[in-house]
Amino acid sequence: MSQETRTRLLAGALQTLVEHGIAGASARTIAGAAGVNQGLVFYHFGSVDNLLAEACRYGSGQRVARYRDRFAAVASLDELVELGRVVHAEERAAGHVATLGQLLAGAQSHPRLAEATAAGLELWIAELEQVLARVLSGGPMAGLVDVGGLARAMAAGFVGLELYEGADSAGAERALASLEQLALAAAVVEEMGPLAQRALRARLRRGGAAPTSRG
Q1: Those residues with Cβ within 8 angstroms of residue 200's Cβ, 6 or more apart along the chain or in another chain
Q2: What pLDDT is stored for residue 192 in this prediction?
Q3: What is the pTM of this model?
Q4: Torsion-angle region of residue 28: left (phi > 0), alpha (psi -120 to 50) or beta?
């Protein structure tokens, strides 16, 4: 029963963020959403901030697990961008974009929440990094790209798109289309002959510093 109550409070916290925002996330509103006594918030988590932080990790873990098999099936950059479109649409429809927006807003003034939000985003980054390491290995970009940095750039880009779409849906669509064009360009590079690939690698080495490892 104790674990069931904790899970209900975690789900209630996420629901409260969507419906009332970070400013309305009180012990009373969260307990109401969970259908439990508000004293249980403090019994199980100690404070509302602790509950929100745990809810962030809990929600991210659930969402990443939902797409893990589809990430594992990605075999190219264009497939990764295509999956990004699917994730973008499903997460927005499920209300998780609104939750993320509230968590990011709260993270600006709540260090505990900032730490948890970063940890939640790291779960997405880890999935992206695995995909990128797999699809880039053996190609002309192998060893020339900081895969961890690229994974973070992509995660940050998609987070921005999720939030930006609410203000400018046409602009968000253009951004996604541009990512698709870049993925197609990368596919063309993969099909280049070995001489052209070697020339490209040499040019890229001259053009920038060696990538750093993820640390």
Answers
A1: 140, 189, 192
A2: 61
A3: 0.75
A4: alpha
Query: Residue 134: CB partners within 8 Å, gap ≥ 6?
Result: 74, 75
Tokens of 93: 């429809």
| 8 A C-beta contact, residue 51 and residue 30 | yes
Residue that wins the pLDDT comparison between 214 and 97: 97
Give CA–CA dist 175/168, Å, rounded: 11
Residues 6+ apart with CB under 8 A from 83: 67, 70, 71, 74
The token pair that represents 114 in the structure block: 């900032």
Angle at 144 between CA 140 and CA 145, to 5 degrees: 110
Q: Which tokens is 41 given?
A: 């918030």
Q: Using alpha carbons, list the distances in angstroms from residue 26 to 5, 38, 79.
A: 17, 9, 41
pLDDT digit string, tens, across residues 24-34: 889 999 999 99
